[in-house]
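Example 252, ligand flavin-adenine dinucleotide.
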Amino acid sequence: MALKTRVGIIGAGPAGLLLAHMLHLEGIESVVIERQTREAIEGTIKSGVLEHPAVELLEQVGLGARLRREGFEHRGIELAFGGQRHRIDLHELTDGKSIVVYPQHEVIKDLVSAVLANGTPIEFGVCDVSLHDLESDRPAIRYTTDGAEHEIHCDFIGGCDGFHGPSRMSIPAAVRKEHGKVYPAAWFGILCQAPPSSGKLIYAQSERGFALISTRSPTVQRMYFQCDPDARVDDWSEDRIWAEFRARLANE
Ligand SMILES: Cc1cc2nc3c(=O)[nH]c(=O)nc-3n(C[C@H](O)[C@H](O)[C@H](O)COP(=O)(O)OP(=O)(O)OC[C@H]3O[C@@H](n4cnc5c(N)ncnc54)[C@H](O)[C@@H]3O)c2cc1C
């Protein structure tokens, strides 16, 4: 089946969905296609801390109500080093700005509802996505669903399918510019079902490396510590993980 639209958007993450919503507000039609199911994108716990510009943007496009009602505003963070904690009062230092803890999958739920309510189609569970005729003024996206082939002809393609998606590698090599930095450390991240261990977001540096105590909701907590890029999850027992957090956050 062939379809025509102004902007064909690949990927229903925050970027693709927000793009579709903002285009609608400008009177520009689009179609979104997504590899995963709606349940999967609305149920996967990823990020959680929204910086002030992100909150401001979501409010500007009419998506701030639930975020303000259910999100947790943090007016400061704590930096821990040398055995001491130092409160950084973001609110006071930035003329009233703050960050809000509101999980990304909740942002996704708000965006999916808004995009569908706008009348913008989102096709979930697509496979075999490929981009064509990118150097023409009528690029196309091809994909399959349930074994049937589809094609979207558009004026523009929004490649919002992340680092591993097909869009990045479809940009002709002659015009593609990539910027990257490889750090000599990786993050060991955990999600645990428990109330917050601290009312604050704590960024801790110690001789053992960095650790971050963050949160997602009153019942789900997110924590990270810096680890060797070759570390294997199986080498970290639950006891060892908690001992590492305690050691990195200890007040000497
Ligand atoms: C553990 C973790 C914690 C994080 N914490 C924070 C935080 O606290 N604050 C913050 O601001 N950011 C945080 N981030 C970063 C944030 O999650 C990303 O910046 C954000 O998800 C990027 O959005 P995106 O829409 O560009 O890409 P993505 O969220 O990656 O969305 C891309 C979408 O494209 C879809 N897709 C991929 N391939 C295809 C294909 N072939 N066809 C169709 N669809 C496809 C994917 O299924 C996905 O839905 C965190 C990330 C992780 C992993």
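Summary: The longest helix spans residues 104-117.
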